[in-house]
Amino acid sequence: MSKTIFLMGFMGSGKSAVARSLARRLRWPIIDLDGLIEARIGCSIARYFATHGEAKFREVETEVLTSVARKQGVVSLGGGVPTQSVNREILLQAAAEGALVIYLRAGSEILAERIRRQPGKRPLIDGDGELDMEATQRRVNELLAQREPLYMECANNVIETDSLTIPSVCREILSRMDEI
Ligand code: S3P
Question: CA torsion, points 93, 71, 37, 139, in degrees to nearest 10?
Fold first, then answer.
């Protein structure tokens, strides 16, 4: 059985909530990439983006991803992890070694609505100040269009989550683990 499950998807796709629930059911450790990054940088990701910029954040993100890639656990990835080719290679290599790399796919309207409920948390969406719904939607559409092929390139499993609850996403993942 695979020893690492990576949960990948856009901001607001439910990675953290699914990771918590799945890790509890499997009795596996939960590895929250953004949480580990914040522990390393000593401040929130939003603040780090504002003070150091995205490129620096991506460097730390790759370091932290490298350090967890072979650990047993349910890894909740940040939504931008697959934007870096080095990170895509890490995920593809992990998949080749038996990891599940699951893309939690969600429609852009659902994503934009969830993101709007947590203003100030997503520097790539509202880093310059709070956006209205229309501007948030435009930004989500734009980023999602760029990232969708990258998520699909890295994933060995895709789950359409729009009509699913967190427990049913977990059940779906567990059933796919049984198949391998
Ligand atoms: C990012 C997503 C965030 C966080 C950072 C960048 C992105 O994580 O890593 O703000 O580029 O999509 P979540 O997907 O957990 O919000």
Answer: 50
Atom number, ligand 1, closest to the C-alpha of residue 11: 14
pLDDT one-digit tens code per residue, 56-96: 999 999 999 999 999 999 999 999 999 999 999 999 999 99
User: Does ligand 1 have an atom closer than 6 angstroms to the CB of 81?
Assistant: no
Encoding tokens for residue 171? 């059940």
pTM of the model: 0.95
CATH label, 4-106+151-175, candidates 3.40.50.720, 3.90.180.10, 3.40.50.300, 3.40.50.150: 3.40.50.300
Q: Is 140 in the pocket of ligand 1 (CB under 6 A)?
A: no
Question: For residue 69, how far is its CA from the centre of ligand 1 (angstroms)?
Answer: 18
pLDDT digits (tens, 9 = 90+) for 14-67: 999 999 999 999 999 999 999 999 999 999 999 999 999 999 999 999 999 999
150 CB near ligand 1 (under 6 Å): no
81 DSSP assignment? G
3-class secondary-structure state, position 161: coil
60 lines ligand 1 (CB under 6 A): no
